[in-house]
């Protein structure tokens, strides 16, 4: 058993040495962004906010969901050694899963972590600004909906008022026609045919 653990320890040392050698080679080729030189204190970062972004960004870059890669990345950030979190080592480790996509992902991730540790709530400034923009956009959309509803309500009220006016005009015309008809019949009764009383008077004089 002791030999097994010694062998495992030796393999781990060889692996770490190989990674460090690779990091030095990449450093010479300037494959790491300048902001990797800045340290991040993960105790000041809200991982509850970072985890959804990590999962979404990895899925976007890889083109499919991979929980193993997401969990591995989160583990790299949460189980930090005494030396602290090394972004260069993180990129090398993530390259085994994401290949060329690891470099842009780790660069974005490190920028967000640097921003988050400066925030009182441990949230990157970019996330806060995006949330504000989303809320502002939703507020504007809600206002547009209210304005549209108000406009349609006014149109309905105006259309209803026009119909009422039309009905009133129609009723008024009907009453006018009725009055004119009654007046015509009355005038015919007075001047057109003699009344029975007038006939009796004529017969009396005769």
From TrEMBL:
Q: Does the keyword Calcium apply?
A: no
Basic and acidic residues: compositionally biased ranges: 133-168
Can you supply a Gene Ontology BP term from the record?
Answer: regulation of mRNA splicing, via spliceosome
> Per its UniProt record, what InterPro entries does this chain match?
PWI_dom (IPR002483), PWI_dom_sf (IPR036483), Ser/Arg_repetitive_matrix (IPR052225)
Domain annotation PWI: ranges = 29-130
Where are stretches of biased composition, namely Basic residues?
169-180
| Keywords for this protein | mRNA processing
UniProt GO cellular component terms: spliceosomal complex
Q: Name one GO molecular function term.
A: RNA binding
TM regions (residue ranges): none
- The protein depicted here goes by the name PWI domain-containing protein
Pfam families in alphabetical order: PWI
Cite the residue spans of the region called Disordered: 133-206
């Amino acid at each position: 058993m002791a030999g097994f653990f010694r062998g495992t320890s030796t393999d781990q040392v060889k692996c770490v040495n190989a990674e460090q050698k690779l990091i030095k080679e990449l450093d010479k080729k300037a494959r790491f962004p300048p902001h990797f030189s800045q340290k991040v204190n993960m105790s000041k970062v809200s991982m509850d906010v970072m985890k959804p972004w990590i999962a979404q960004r990895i899925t976007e870059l890889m083109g499919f969901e991979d929980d193993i890669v997401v969990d591995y990345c989160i583990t790299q950030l949460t189980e930090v050694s005494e030396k602290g979190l090394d972004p260069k080592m993180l990129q090398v480790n993530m390259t085994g899963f994401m290949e060329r996509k690891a470099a842009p992902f780790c660069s974005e991730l490190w920028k967000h972590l640097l921003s988050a540790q400066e925030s009182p709530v441990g949230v990157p400034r970019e996330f806060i600004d995006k949330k504000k923009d989303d809320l502002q956009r939703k507020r504007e959309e809600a206002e547009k909906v209210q304005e549209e509803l108000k406009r349609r309500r006014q149109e309905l009220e105006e259309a209803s008022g026009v119909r009422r006016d039309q009905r009133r005009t129609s009723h008024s015309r009907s009453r006018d026609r009725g009055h004119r008809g009654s007046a015509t019949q009355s005038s015919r009764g007075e001047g057109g045919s003699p009344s029975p009383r007038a006939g009796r008077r004529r017969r009396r004089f005769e």
